[in-house]
Amino acid sequence: RSFAKSRKVSSTKDASSMSRLYSVESLLTATGSTADHRLRLSSSQMVGFTAQIGSNILKARNVGGSLVKKLDELGASISVDPEWVKQCSADLVEHVGNSLVLAGDHLPDAVHHIVLAINTALNAPINYLNVPSKESGIEVAVERLNKGGVDTLVLLGGNPVYNAPIDLNWENAQSKAKKTLFLSDAKNETAASADLFMAQSHYLESWGDGRAYDGLLLPVQPMIEPLFPTVNELEVLALLLGSETSDAYKITQDTFRQLGGRDFNKFLSDGLLEDSSYEVVPIEVDYAVIFDVLNSDKFSAQKELSSDNLEVRFTPSSHGMDGRFANNGWMLECPDPITKLTWDNPILISPRLAKDLEARDGVQIFPKKTVLNGATFEAAKGTLQRNKAIFDRGKEMAVVAELTINGRSIEAPIHVLPGLANYTIQLPLGLGRKVVGRVGYGVGFDFYRLRESSNMGYANNAAIKLTKKTYRLANTQEHWSMEGRAIVREANADYYTKHPDFANKVGVESHAPANYGKYDYKSLQKKSLNNYRGNSAYEHPKFNEPYPNVKVWKNNQDKFPQIQQWGMALDANSCFGCSACVVACQSENNIPIVGKDQVLRGREMHWMRIDRYFSAAKYDQAEIPEDVQVSFMGVACQHCENAPCESVCPVNATVHDKQGLNTMAYNRCVGTRYCANNCPFKVRRFNFFDWNKRQVGEFYKGPLGKVDEPELQKMQKNPNVTVRMRGVMEKCTYCVQRIESAKIDQKRRAGPSGDIHVKDGAIKTACQQVCPTDAISFGDISDPNSEVSKMKASDRNYSLLGYLNVRARTTYLARLRNPNKKMPDYYDKPFAYAQYDERYGHGSSGDKHSSAEHNKHSLLDNSHGSGKDHVSDATHTSHDHHAPMAGDVANH
User: Fold this and answer.
1) 395 shares a domain with 252
2) What span, in angstroms and rounded, lies between the C-alpha atoms of 731 and 172?
3) Domain for residue 380, yes or no?
4) What pLDDT is recorded for position 213?
5) Which of 268, 590, 596, 689 is the most exposed place for a label (fewest CB within 10 A)?
6) Which tens digits make up the pLDDT trace of 862-884?
7) What pLDDT, in 10s, does the model give residues 5-18?
8) What is the pTM of this model?
9) Is the domain of 81 the same as that of 172?
10) Which runs of consecutive H residues, i.e. helices, occur in 799-885?
11) Which residues, in sequence order, are CB contacts of 324 under 8 Å at separation 6+?
């Protein structure tokens, strides 16, 4: 959240104070997607790279002594662009006291020692905490068990049989204990091999406490009584230790007092114990000590990576983390922020490696021909094609490969992902469980079988071989690029300072006149003219003014107060694509999971989706780009004032209310799906089955299938939201239940005053409430002082597909990047913007063109829809292309 705040821009004055982020990584992550400069580099080369950065900084700060020479020696082991290293280092030095370097926890100790030296030289704004030392690791436990003599082994949580390093052979070691007691909140692989399995209470059913990352003591309070006869950790430990009491509440109170707490009730209400964090300790870094550590470290240059000598990164899966969420349908069906895959964790490889494997193994990953809407398009430059992978009715047919590390092998499908280091493979962990609930059983692949205690973060000397098998992946976003259309709008911070209206100078809007006529002074809606084509009109009917022939209104206007008008704004500058909003919406609005088979059919039910787009500097359309910039856009129902869905519904099931919401009357809907066909944003979802009544896998069994919803699942439902049935259309409602609740609460508070206007900020939609970066704002757009109105008044505000004149209540703030002009990979415009200029702008040379050509541009842009159904050819831009903005010559 703090980083997001450093990227907030309210006006051109804030642009110069934006933070700048450099990211050097082997994988494509959310952090790298947000970075202003990103360098792809394998993890095994990070010691050398960090040494080069460290050497430059220490030399510039005239510190380090003999350590500098050692860093030069380590840095010589790799080859990277020296200008990239030089300018990055110079930028960090230029901002001494306000710059900071962080290293991933999977990297070798040598990297962390060098980073310590760098941060010391930079006088980085960082505190060091006196953290308690760690207890013995799992290796010590295995050694003790293998020696024998362990009578009772007690395991509190975890699942070591599933995720312990494979070389430790934990299951065999565990079997040597005479008795094993295991406490867990779910039956898993470890529970199946234990002598006694104890069901653990959920943390929301338990009393306890915990420590935050900085050591701050936090309370854990139960929200409900345990649903089942379960026990928590404190109760088990108290019984095993023979304590006087096993009451978790009393134990928590005693611990609180022992740590210096006095007022337990205040502790509960505050949610923390003040001054309980770990001690901040001043440190004096001795560069000579770091030199000795690096000199004694067994680091050596790795053999150069290639298609025959690969590096493998082990990462938590976005679907199952380390395996603990493998039975959580919300997590499994939520698309991965980067790959947009659901219900699977394939092997992720780079485009370069895919190309090499095709040539070596003779198996096509990228077919010569791709079936698209019944027609065949050659995979040649300039033609339309999907994703460069095999798609059949939305199903990604992935090639299966055999991956081998240190003699251990596994077969799994591959998915080609831009942005990875050329010869680094990513293995998402956490799926492929064998003992798990009905939702997670048989989902994904178990890559823990390849991870050893010596390579917990990454491994070298891996080999991969393509097979002739294929596997279906459920990919919710088949398109990769924006086709040059101005969907996500971006610019550099310095460009925005000079051209604050850039967001409305691209897209069809820049080629079309204003909607309200040629002359501004004749417009009925000045604000819409000021905010360009496509935004909400803002000036709404004055419901508190009497109509001509309604006598009851006369002298009673105060009894009919102005009705609030709701709207939303999303700041693309703050959205990192984490997808927390997607799951929050699903939880709040009783949105069901449908399973992999139905996702493969395009029937996912999420009301909100995060569209992810790739753009590249240089790209041959016949190949996937190796290095990309990433853009994210959250898309839900736009609540259009001129809604296309409303005009085609034959039964008025979707209508507008007086507050501007596009509402759904579920009991009117007869399932024609005309509204979905007419929605340009593709945000409506149709219930093909009674998802809520039938379990995943029972949809096609008709009367033979189970139709009773489990009791626990019923308890999970939000009682304030209707549960929809088969044949009904649904979509985002702006969390209307929360709006109505706030109105009722305000009416109660108002009493005789009659002020029923809900205060700004009193209503938070589910997506807004959960957003970790405050990228979403919701409120009354008829109030110029509301937060959402202030965001919509920004120069960066624009409407998605605004040229359609649907007058969406949801608008977006264009993204800003803050690249360093001195960097060798500096770009005048973000690649997505340059792509638009190249395709639908006014030419690479800026030459004026005829009105016929002008119309051609508009038709090209207008010919594409938005959402998951449009087709991707490729991003085709040039890094050194300096075309003028479309808007610079559009109004000639």
Assistant:
1) no
2) 51
3) yes
4) 86
5) 268
6) 223 333 332 222 232 222 322 22
7) 888 888 888 888 88
8) 0.85
9) no
10) 831-840, 851-862
11) 159, 430
